């Protein structure tokens, strides 16, 4: 029987923390996000969460913000309990974009089999956690139920941290006798882990290996990045067009990108842009600085850098929005917050330390201290952002409480930042075309 759930659960009445895990394909491209939710009360009390309630709140909020705003062009994994699966809450989501990740404690009985068949008919894809197929399930006499459900499963999620290589091989062999799902490896920590999983037939991947990508293997920055850092440094020194213009003229790729940017953002209006000088004047210093910082994270044709760019844009926008919170805001702080966010991962792509990166840039001392030592209000906002990206709900709670930001406000600002990032990503994709 399908239970009716209350539709009144939303962000205005519940305090839910939100985090996302990126799910990558074999080429290193993000194809989905695993949406993670925790109620503030469960974090405070150190107890298990009522996942059904938390997920219902986020499902409703995703519907409110629009799926494109939350996920962009990617698909979304949502953890589902038995209660949620048997409710009508899922009906408000577009089935073609959502993968329902069944939690290990869901009873895989005949009633659930029927419900999963109904959900599959509407277009939902189903993911099953590997622990649902292990010894624990077998000891409950659930082997027959699991085997009957396997043909409905699209994705099997395997945790490399808790499942031995031998058990992984046995699991894959068993599943492939009955079905042909895609295998998703989580907790991928090293390049060796990734290579081994690909050899075993895994197609989806997530874990620490992807969250801290060192894009450049050389310790020496590329020539384009050196030029970018020079321009960023000049912009922080408020140098004029006459100083900037020669650097663009010496780099055709930068000049082409500059013209595309001016045209794509619509700042030129009906003007005919005919020179580098005119393009620089039309664009303005603030927007030029933000674009230069973004280009540091760009490497043509590299899927890993594209995701890193999305990540840094999202954290910059989130820190900017947080800095505008009524209990934090100060004159000029939001512009500084955005710049700090954009610079906070620059060392990941230049192969340098943050200290070396900052030598190229004449940054105010309090901004340097925020980046190097997490000092001051901007440093505290970086700490909160790091916790969000790590899906560390305890650190998120401690940090947001210290800053005086409610969990409700934090989640709302996260969703705004994600939507803004997705829109900017679409704009930049059109520029490349």
Automatic annotation (TrEMBL):
Residues 221-409 form the HDOD domain. InterPro entries: dGMP_Pdiesterase_EAL/HD-GYP, EAL_sf, HDOD, RNase_Y/CdgJ. Signal peptide: none annotated. It comes from the Bacteria. Pfam families: HDOD. Gene3D superfamilies: EAL domain, Hypothetical protein af1432. PANTHER family: CYCLIC DI-GMP PHOSPHODIESTERASE CDGJ (PTHR33525:SF4), PTHR33525. This is Diguanylate phosphodiesterase.
